[in-house]
Amino acid sequence: MPATYRSFRDLDWTLLIITLILCALGVLQIYSATLGTVWDEAWWKQVVFLAVGAILMLVISHTDYHFLLRRVPWLYVGSIALLLVTFVIGSKVFGSRRWIPVFGMTFQVSEFVKIVLILLVARYLTDLRTEYLETRDLVRLGIVFGIPMVLVMKQPDLGTSLTYLPILAGCIFVAGLRWQHIAAVCLAAVIIAPASWYLLKDYQKARLTTFVDPESDPRGDGYQVIQSKIAVGQGGVWGRGVTQGSQTQLRFLPVPHTDFLFAAFAEEHGFVGVVVALGLYFLLLMRIIQNAQMASDRAGLLICVGVAALLLFHIFVNVGMVVGRMPVTGIPLPLMSSGGSSLISAFIMLGLVQSVRLRRFVN
Amino acid sequence: MNLLPQSEPASRQDLLPLKQDTKGFGARIGIFQYVGLVVFLLLIWSFWDLQVLKGDLYSEAAERNRIRSRPVLAPRGKILDREGRVIVDNHSTFSLLLSRENLRPENLGYIADGLGLQLTQLQERIRRYAKQPRYEPVIVKDELTAADLSFVEAHRGQDMFPELEIIHTQRRLYPSEGFGAHLLGYVGEVSEAELDSAEYADFRPGDVIGKDGIERYYNDTLMGTDGQRRVVVDNRGRERQLLAMREAVPGKPLRLTVDLDLQAVAELAMEGRRGSVVALDPRNGEVLAMVSRPAFDPNAFAGRIPTKVWREIADNPENPLLNRAIQAQLAPGSTFKPIVALAGLETGAIDETSHVNCGGGGSFYGRYFRCHSVHGSTALRKAIAQSCDVFFYTYGNRMGIDAIAQYAQMAGLGRKTGIDLPHEAAGLVPSPAWKMRNYRQKWFAGETISVSIGQGALTVTPLQLATAIGGIATGGVWHKPHLVRHGRSEAAASKADLNLDHVSDVVYGMYAVVNEGGTGVRARLANVEVCGKTGTAQLASNTLLKSAAGRHMVDNAWFVGFAPKSNPEIVVVALFEAGAHGNLAAPIVRDVMKVHFDKKARREALAVPPSVAQLIPRKLMPQEPR
Questions:
Q1: Among residues B334, B450, B452, B541, which one is catalytic?
Q2: Among A69, A70, A298, whose Cβ lies nearest the Cβ of B20?
């Protein structure tokens, strides 16, 4: 073994504690936001998922990540297969098939595919053995990522499929993406973006339109953004207090326990609470990056970078949406938003980071 | 230390050694960290902007979201008859409110569609509220149907039409078939023009007020004061919390002097005809019945009626909106003769020796005036009973126009009676002074001849005629007619110091009309001494002539009657315009009187002194006859 697991004390306790604080804030906010509604059981379900996630995290952190890397081809094939299964037996919610039933619960396969993709890109880039990535590597990675992305997009779930991109982008950037390639990708984006407008579905177009001008559709998506901004703004410096936010409690704020949870949090805890929560997220990210820098090999480093890039993207898109700076995409806030798949997937990823940390000393 | 699977292509593995150092990645990770920092700073700045810089702005927006003002509409008071029977009631209904605070103008088209309203109408309604505080909602539609309710319920809520709210209201319920329509009037939303006038200064747009009749005259009594609720609502418009409440003060009930039984008899008799019936108690001026036909359905006016419906009623040539009892100004014809007779007796122009020889007409001032029959030798009583024109031509001419006008005015003609109804007409008692003032012309002596038999420029309303004859019948006390008792004293009446012998001479003449082979035998009742006077007016008033030329050229038929002969307690006037039904005027008066006296007889049969009544077991009490 190239790296050894020393002892339980070597776990990244800072990372773990930050994670648990954020989860606790999430549970509190879910409780407050669902009080007296049909979802009022969501907070203790979240606690159960939290426990399951914590156990899985410990299991993963005690597993050598190289063991998992070796099984990437099988994991990848399995992921694609499950995504296909989702098409067949997936339960349809709000017009898209994202969930498959397991033991009476539903799992969002696309959330777990992220983990496989992090392992996959880490392994691929480690296997390269070159200083820089060649174009053919980018094409290969593009195809390997493209397949699950297309499958998820067809569910349809554009938001989740887009979250796969930062994994790829973060890892190839750190692993030595040529500046020429970066320039080429930026140029391509500028050209493709207008063209892709014609590929989007109507509701997706509407979301982008209302993102630019929320007042253009105050009944639909624009409504969500307007109400979210009102909720955030009314929070003021100190917040309205737990269970006291009128936008949240009177249900003006849409889905205040999932996608718009952070708006509810901002309303009830104010700017001070927001700074604390975002500060914790920032510390979490920096801690993961620190673990990346301490990794004993490239694979471990890339795993940490992939996790960090993914979380950063999630936070940016979700919180940006809450303050009206990003379009409405339905991407949950990691660790805080209500939802088992998202939470457990986040814990598994943090377990991978722990696994890397525990094996940071080269023998 | 090969951690790669064995499947890795051998060629590549051979080219380069597997690099496991991570040192080369440091710079790129540094860049990544800065990207993260920028992202977080951008987010924090966004929250600073929304929560700290614009916090107050968004707090206000949140308030507008959740706090609503909802009116609590006060029900109007019921209108009762003299015995406390309900004439005008309320019924429960739902009205739709539109909150202007939450209004999204682009929704109006959908809302109008869903409710079957015109978009322009809806916008006009909202515009009318422009001067009101924005928290006051606009009432968009009353009498919501089941379809309207389900439309609103399905679309209510913050993400659909947050501006819509439903409230429970009380709507006016009037008798059907236009029963008492003119008397009762109707309610309607206060108009823009009314709001600009001083009289309506206290009202606000959307208020439902009395527009005519009793509803208008006693609006202050009947109309309550609306309350208001400030409530916290959720995103579906459901109330979560009551912040403040100002209770509605319901309007007070109003008891009329009208007797529903008498009103009903008169209404039924006038069904499908054009004219009016007025019954009042000459002892105190209480109006017992007041009918005007054709009528309209006040229920159609009770809410916010479409202009089209309104125009249909208002433009009807039969003029159903006219309350003929107080607004039809018509020549009284021969029903005016008792007043002329009294004037003659009082001024001494007529005495017991006065008589004419009626040969079917007579010449006065070079013109021949016809009588409708040949009466031969005719003294006062016969002249009244047979309605001999020649007698009244002769003595009218002798006493002169000023004497006639003086006594007509004394009886209350030529001016408003002051009844508690809006828009009463004054009628006209012509005189030389009046003619000079209005036409700058001398009075022609021939005009006096016409006025003597209730023609010429003389016009009265049915109510005026009833009041005038009632006052003469009671010996010269004219009470102000009224529909609601105010405990008014005798002082409200105008009195004349009449010679009671002269009064009884006139009364006997009118008794003869009904009971001694006169023109009004059809008004006769078995047990009551009914007195009366027929009239056939040959021309309608000038104003009506202009309004619908030709039709009104036909004679109008009148009958005025009172009973009993001594101490009369009821006086009834019936008018048929375009008198095809002229012979029905007397029977209607008779029927109304009959109901009055039948009821009185029944009341007297049941009357037991209260102290005794308490001692007698209920079953031993006299039972109402079957």
A1: B334
A2: A298
